[in-house]
Specification:
mainly alpha; disordered N terminus; Volt_channel_dom_sf; Four Helix Bundle (Hemerythrin (Met), subunit A); calcium; extended; transmembrane; two-stranded antiparallel ribbon
């Protein structure tokens, strides 16, 4: 029986030893990994850590061996069928001893942390300063934009531009009577004031719009014109001051030639007065109409040139033929008006444009015969009654279309229409319910105010129900203010009133 027990315990004892050896190897492997990590984190303490690891390793090994023996003994006292149990215990690392180098390492670590804190604080301070500067710049830009877009600002500088043009005319008129005096101190002070005002205006607009919008935006043409006006104005002022302070005789003449070059920019200062067209709607419509008709003017001039050139060749050929066969007759008037193609075309153009009495040119053709005189009359009638009137009609039509397409004019008409719609709605919705019924609409439809309003916006309907149904967009048989306003804006005009039927 003892032999059987011994045989039964030997396999169990071997199994326990194998488990303990495997756990012992795992613990040693963990210890090696922990030592390698410690070496990476503290390279300066490599030698000390290795010594400490060598001291710790035998103790841990002995302790693990003791644990193995104790585990083997306890497992031998247990009863059972010999099931395998996994025993995993982790040995707590021993607390390391304090060395003399730890203070230096702690001090260096403290210095590093302090430098990191200082860098963080500096970056935060820089970020705060940058944010403040950006907020200030944004506020300045917003205020500049508010000033530049205000009506008072635009009216003030519009008056300044017009007064500058008058000032330039007065200076030239004074210079016509005072030829010997080059620079007048009063006019020099006036130029200085206007240059300062224009510089302030340009600076405000530059800050309000920003560099990209100022130089390349929709209004960049006016901005570049301001630059070409303000910069030469300051150069001219400097040259005037230098000429006034110069006492050398040759210097004044050379400066005068340079000043004349910069005085050419005064024409641009006069052209700046066109900027006030943005503030006067009637003036703006005229200027835009003239600009838009330049394309039609080009083709109108081409048509007139072709007609004048054709008649000029006819009259010149007839005159040269007459002078060739009747050379003994000297007719100075005939040669003066129709002696060449150039003279003939000039005569025909002046006669058409009332440059002189065209009967004189017609009488000059009497030696050629009545046919050529009547042909000249036909030319005057055709060009004066047909061609010029057709060209005038084209110009008028183009001007009307330009007026209709003007964005600011459309917006003004839209605002006026909205005001009319709002006034009419207050009369329709007397109860203040926010909606009107067909009964209320029929009652108001018979009044003159409502008929006058729909007649003003060119919305003509046969009866109240037709108009009510057209204004009822959602089909709930009630008209709200939004429906009334939107449908009136959509249906106004003769081209839209067809939707009512």
């Amino acid at each position: 029986m003892d032999t059987n027990c011994t045989e039964h315990k030997d396999p169990t004892h071997k199994l326990v030893e194998e488990v303990l050896e495997r756990q012992h190897g795992e613990l040693l492997l963990r210890l090696e990994k922990w030592l390698s990590k410690l070496e990476e984190q503290l390279p300066s303490r490599e030698a000390r850590d290795l010594d400490w690891a060598r001291e710790v390793t035998p103790a841990v090994t002995n302790r693990l061996s003791g644990m193995s023996v104790r585990s083997a003994r306890s497992s031998r006292n247990r009863t059972g069928t010999g099931d395998e149990e996994d025993i995993r215990r982790e040995e707590k690392p021993q607390r390391r001893s304090i060395h003399s180098d730890d203070y230096e390492l702690a001090q260096s670590e403290a210095d590093r942390v302090e430098s990191m804190k200082n860098m963080t604080m500096a970056s935060r301070q820089t970020s705060k300063t940058k944010t403040k500067l950006q907020s200030w710049a944004k506020k300045i830009q917003q205020r500049s934009a508010k000033i530049a877009n205000s009506l008072a600002f635009n009216i003030f500088f519009g008056v300044v531009i017009v007064s500058n043009s008058v000032f330039l005319g007065l200076q030239l008129e004074w210079s016509a009577w005072q030829v010997d005096q080059l620079v007048e101190p009063a006019f020099l002070a006036g130029h200085l004031i206007y240059a300062t005002l224009f510089s302030v205006e340009m600076s405000i607009r530059f800050i309000a719009n920003g560099p990209r919008t100022y130089f390349f935006g929709s209004s960049c043409a006016w901005n570049w014109l301001d630059i070409f006006v303000v910069v030469p104005a300051w150069v001219e002022i400097c040259m005037d001051i230098a000429s006034a302070n110069s006492s050398e005789p040759g210097t004044g003449a050379s400066n005068f030639r340079i000043i004349r070059v910069f005085k050419l920019t005064r024409l641009l200062q006069v052209l700046r007065s066109v900027r006030i067209v943005r503030f006067v709607s009637a003036f703006r419509a005229l200027v835009y109409s003239v600009i838009d008709t330049t394309r039609q003017l080009l083709w109108a001039m081409v048509l007139l040139i072709l007609i004048i050139y054709s008649f000029g060749i006819l009259f010149t050929d007839a005159v040269l033929y007459h002078l060739f066969w009747f050379s003994e007759i000297e007719d100075a008037e005939l040669k003066k008006y129709f002696g060449s193609v150039f003279h003939s075309c000039t005569t025909l153009f002046r006669a058409l444009m009332n440059g002189f009495d065209w009967s004189i040119a017609a009488d000059a053709l009497l030696p050629l015969g009545d046919f050529w005189v009547q042909l000249f009359h036909l030319y005057i009638a055709f060009c004066g009654l047909a061609v010029l009137n057709v060209i005038t009609g084209v110009f008028v039509n183009s001007a009307i279309k330009t007026r209709e397409k003007d964005h600011e004019t459309l917006m003004q008409n839209m605002y006026k229409l909205k005001d009319l719609v709002g006034d009419l709605w207050t009369k329709l919705d007397k109860a203040g319910a926010g909606k009107i019924t067909i009964t209320e609409f029929e009652q108001m439809f018979e009044e003159e105010d409502m008929r006058a309003f729909f007649g003003a916006i060119e919305m003509n309907a046969m009866d109240a129900w037709t108009l009510f149904d057209s204004l009822d967009a959602d089909g709930d048989h009630l008209i709200s203010f939004e429906e009334f306003k939107e449908r009136c804006l959509q249906l106004h005009g003769p081209a839209r009133s067809v939707d009512l039927f």
